[in-house]
Specification:
alpha+beta, Muramoyl-pentapeptide Carboxypeptidase, domain 2, 4-stranded antiparallel β-sheet, two-stranded antiparallel ribbon, 13% strand, elongated
């Protein structure tokens, strides 16, 4: 028999992820359509195998990327202007452990490493690229290919003439300029 608090939790469980689903759909709609379709597919695959994919972030402004770059602690962050997040070409996800019932009616819970390996292979299967050391980060282009384009186009300057701390006082692109540039790039990028 379940205790009262456990029964209450089971009754409310379907509603606990309601706002998470709304956030994830906003993230999927904010990234490039090619990436959005693949994120939705990964979400479906994750649920089918007994796990869950929580999308953490998609598109970021250069100011948001600068904040992450200045304060990187547990996850690596690309230099502002050099991140695929700024163009809607990348997303970060948290893959929750896969739980399955085995043939002998036993519960099998996969470790985080096993889950990350499985979901990483699924992401590669649909053409996404992963970044070593940044679990859950998926992107449309390999870093070498994207960075050379970003540097050549003038968006990315990986060797700034001023210290990193000075970046927080500079604003290269406001939100509207960012959206104009991103919209202009849509026609040149694979769909």
């Amino acid at each position: 028999m379940l205790c009262k608090s456990t029964r209450r939790r089971h009754l409310l469980e379907p509603f606990l992820f309601l706002d998470v689903g709304l956030r994830e759909s906003r993230i999927i709609n904010s990234v490039h359509p090619w990436l959005g379709v693949r994120l939705q597919w990964l979400q479906d695959v994750s649920r089918i195998v007994g796990g869950n994919q929580l999308l953490i972030s998609g598109v970021r402004t250069q100011a948001e990327q600068r904040t992450l770059y200045d304060n990187q602690t547990t996850r690596p962050a690309a230099y502002p202007g050099c991140s695929q997040h700024e163009f809607g070409f990348a997303a970060d996800a948290k893959w929750l452990p896969i739980t399955q019932i085995t043939s002998k009616a036993r519960l099998k819970v996969f470790t985080n490493a096993e889950t990350n390996t499985f979901m990483g292979n699924a992401a590669r299967h649909v053409g996404l690229h992963l970044v070593a050391g940044d679990t859950g980060h998926v992107q449309m282009y390999p870093n070498s290919e994207f960075k050379s384009w970003a540097v050549a186009s003038g968006f990315c300057n990986p060797n700034p003439p001023f210290p990193k701390s000075a970046l927080s006082y500079l604003s290269f692109l406001d939100r509207q300029s960012f959206l104009d540039i991103r919209q202009g790039l849509q026609g040149f990028i694979r769909v």
